[in-house]
Amino acid sequence: MDKFKIGIIISWLSILLNILLFFLKFWAGIVSHSVALVADAWHTLTDSISSVAVLVGIKVSSKPADQEHPFGHGRAELMATIFVGILLALVGANFTYESVIKLRSHEAFEYGNFAIIVTLISIVVKEAMAQYSIYYGKKSNAKSLIADGWHHRSDAFSSIIILGGLFLGHYFWWIDGVLGLVVSLLIFYTTYKILKESLSIFLGEKIDEELKESIQDIGINEFKRDLDPHHFLIHQYGHHAELTFHISLPGAMSLTEAHTIASKYEILVKQVHNIGVTIHIDSIDKYDNVKY
After folding, report:
1. Which pLDDT band, with edges at 50, 70 and 90, does 288 fall under?
2. Percent of the chain residues past pLDDT 90, beyond the cut
3. Quick one: which of 45, 119, 123, 157 has the most CB atoms within 10 Å?
4. Looking at residue 292, what is its pLDDT?
């Protein structure tokens, strides 16, 4: 099945399951007077919103290149990933606020079997959704799907913590508020990981060393000479990347021969790594030996 179709199916499934879990958790939280469980319910609902963002990002990023966007629409998915991260940060801030209020008011909570059952269901369902999203996200190189998977996993972690709190609530009045703060910290950590990676790619990163070495090896193995590949610059556009770098050739070489070598090198790199390549030729007689 096409990787974009897989992403769309997973996103729709995520939206439907999260809405169902939200109502179950919210009801259980109201019945047991648990701010942590109610907060966890809203966390689950934000998963649906983030899945909608992922769904839109995947659909837009799958559009082919056009005159206005010659490098495609791949960064739409990256923008969706950043949106998920920001949404998580807002959820974490709200949980922190609600937990502090509950601690200050010395408000306890009571749990029943319904709250335990709902929490157990949430743990199993959310971890299963995380596994699928992260697995297919890595398989299709869909960062927004991976981010959504971590969003699901953070919900599963928070439910595990809340499950422990349900059993300790009778002994410690403050346990619900403290667990709400712990859930907030988990969400903030997940937010940090998602935004750090996504923003780094969005701002631009240096070429991966393994990719750089592979490209250098292609030149040596194919042309039987050191073309001195240097000054590598790579631009990521979601599922598409554009690479530029320089090679050094003798100044006395004809323009036709130099162009033939560069063009062949571009084709070879594209075949191996599936990235767009543009090569600039330096005259070896004027090259100043500065490496990048």
Report:
1. very low
2. 12
3. 119
4. 39
- Tell which residue, 74, 192, 208, has the closest CA to residue 141: 74
Greater model confidence, 219 or 43: 219
Structural domains of the chain sorted by starting position, each given as residue range(s) with its CATH number in brackets: 3-203 (1.20.1510.10), 209-283 (3.30.70.1350)
**Residue 245: φ, ψ to 5°:** -155, 170
Q: What is the pLDDT of residues 134-190, one digit of tens each?
A: 888 887 777 777 877 877 887 787 778 778 777 776 677 787 778 778 878 877 887
125-157 exposure pattern, b = at least 16 Cβ within 10 A, e = fewer? bbbebbebbbebbeebebbbbbbbbbbbbbbbb
Residues 34-79: tens digit of each pLDDT: 766 777 787 777 777 777 777 777 777 667 767 777 666 667 777 7
